[in-house]
Batch of 3 targets.
Target 1
Amino acid sequence: MKRDMFTFTKNVLEHVSFDPSLFCKELEKAIRILLPYEIEQLTEWLLQYTSEKPELRQCLIYVNK
């Protein structure tokens, strides 16, 4: 079964969330390859996911461009 890029991206971001700079780097990569509707989904997910992880909030700048 083919996994969509949004799900793949979420998994990658969850795995690198221990390191804010790596998280930002992976998020930046994701923004370049995801489709516009996937970026919207990712933005919603990020807002929820980073609410408990303030050290990652700085990375939201990449989805607010």
Note: The mean pLDDT is 91.
Target 2
Amino acid sequence: MADSCEPLPAWPMPRSCPYAPPDAYEGLRKDPPLKVRIRGGEAWLVTRHADVRQVLNDNRFSSDDQQPGFPIRIQLPPEPGVMSFSRMDGAEHGRLRRMAMTEFTARRTRALRPEVELLVEQLLDELAAGPNPVDLVKSFALRLPSLVIARMLGVPEDDEADFAEQSQVILSQDASPEETYAAFVEMSQFLDRLAAQRTADPQDDLISRLVTRYVATGELTHQELVAMARFFLVAGHETTAHQISLSVLSLLRDPDQLAELRADPALFKPAVEELLRYWSISQDNQVRAAVADVELGGARIRKGDGVIVAIPGANHDESVYPDPDRLDIHRNASGHLAFGFGAHLCPGASLARMELEVCLSGLFARFPTLRLAVPSEDVRFRQNTIVYGLEDLPVTW
């Protein structure tokens, strides 16, 4: 760790190449975790795969955003539970997560696949009939996860664009606190009304099933239901959308590996795992607060210290993934931490994997001549946001 007289390095750290994590991570993995300067204070930065796994699976590191020292990355109202069980520990986390997971089992994901395949086909039909070139982010990557999560929750399709915009504002680091709060309130008010409607008249959707099973029995309050739905919308839309566009970009830049995938579509399944590892788009939303003194990778972390988990650093750890900055669809990428690890493993992991496999295989099958419409160096990456991604992806065929 740096000498106490030296200024702490600022975080987030810059990338010299948009296709790789911050340069500093490689050097940091050789040493114990160090403290960095963040908005509002300081926190420990953890970059090694083994250390990240420990933090994510050790109850001495709390997910409760009410804990002293918890690093605040999203400027949301300070009351407990605004992001549901993602920011809770212990029994309360377990109680709400168990309710949610009934909707995200592998069986339910398999049952959803035909509907996702149909949605992808409809979007591809629209692409084929629309302008060429086209921005694939706006016309495809953002729309599919919005449609899927909206259908799951029972949100009318007419509100899809509003939710996409609100999610982006909530997760942006450039939005003012007033803008973030306004987007949060608008989304919350809509979901509050929707939950009330489903309580009065249940339908065949996720919110209705949670109402029938848990709200009606008193196990889940109305506000807890609204918070859970809000978490699903924000987390389930932004992450998958930007993983789709980045994955398409990677494969368009690597025609040899893309040709292999086209020749053998069974390779899309392992390729999705490697693309998840390679991009690791959760740049910095995995944060914790130490609730006890902990020895971690040679550092002494004190109770009340904030901890930032660098998922891109862990997934590019050379000791686990040789030549980590190279995309290799034949790599065994198992053990990657793109969905987290431990008790807070992303509940929508199986759904996201399925969406990625369906949309990538469908897109490249429908458009065999798909290619970038601009030089790859002109593709614009999103800056200063919690979820890494692209501003746009101009393509032609």
Note: The longest helix spans residues 222-252.
Target 3
Amino acid sequence: MYPTDAEAAAEARAVVKDADRKHVFHSWSAQELIDPLAVAGAEGSYFWDYDGNRYLDFSSALVYTNIGYQHPKVVAAVQEQAGRLCTLAPGFAVDVRSEAARLIAERTPGDLDKVFFTNGGAEAVENAVRMARLHTGRPKVLSAYRSYHGATAAAINLTGDARRFGNDSATAGVVHFWGPYPYRSPFWSASEAEECERALRHLEDTVAFEGPASVAAIVLETVGGAPGVLVHPEGYLAGVRELCDRHGIVFILDEVMVGFGRTGKWFAAEHWGVTPDLITFAKGVNSGYVPLGGVAISGAIAETFATRPYPGGLTYSGHVLACAAAVATINVMEEEDVVGRSARTGAELLGPGLRALAERHPSVGEVRGLGTFWALELVRDRKTREPLVPYNATGADNAPMAEFAAACKKGGLWPLTAGNRIHLAPPCTIAPEDVARGLEILDAALSVADAHTTG
């Protein structure tokens, strides 16, 4: 029970905040410059603070509460599993771990029928890269500049965005390339088809000049999440698949953010009919209720380790509580048609609603997305496409986005902002009336961004 009396609530908030500020070290932050909101509870598409302020969560925490907060069937499954068996070493065969792997393998494309469990997405990427290097005997891995793959050693070097800067060892065997981005084309393209063609040619040249025989893998986010919900143009992923096949390169798709219904498919690769050699996943597999991630592995790569030991492992690989949450989540998604609901929400509500906002607000340069995963790119001038704030802006340079985010929160919408964009990723189960409410709040907040436009 959370305190209902105002005085008791204020006291509870103060205790939580005091302990947080004294002892919790937060990610990606200057510790003395942040003021985390003290959250008292959450349910469905909402969470609330100790003062009773409710926020419609258009971030799904960090794009992972695909079935919303506190789904009773998943909570019950975790409780039941805890009463039966809380934990067991990863070397044993356990019913719930086996069932989670089976349910995941049934939904992955092609013959990705083996699952190596991790604690989260970054570890999944680490192990996928390790598998690719061991499978091919090659050292180099290619990834896009506009990308995010996690904060562990190899994953942060694969990452292309600014979070890499303070961590880049320059010794990780990673080569970056430019992926397609029609709105801000690095190839001066005039159409999506031209962007696709030129991006593939650039990638092919990069492989050629790095030496195809030295490239173990190409790693791509199926839809670029942190870089701005970048949806690849038709034909691009198929072209990368062909390039990998031609040179014996392992094709890794990072679906940590977009897997399990987020884009209106179980896996986003289904939109383009492409099957990679490895898929990394986490987040939506159990809506983040207990940390879990993994790598779905093709038959050819699994065969590499049939009689040769795989030199990697994790103490909590396939933790039984996390797997119980995954089994319950996947079953809920089937029972409640969560994947279909995500697709319909995007096609019928979010997509049309966001495009209507773009027509009214000069600060919106582009709308893009799939399912329950969208972004608005905010600009100062639609004609020049000058971003509302500069790349990697902080402090005063980032003031327009900070003001916009504050307006969202004041209206009761919790946003996920990155650079000059707002990413819109509500739970895949969000009700139509909550979509409408979120769009109404966003409409008002965009007026704040409009005040900074010049064209």
Note: The chain has a mean pLDDT of 96.
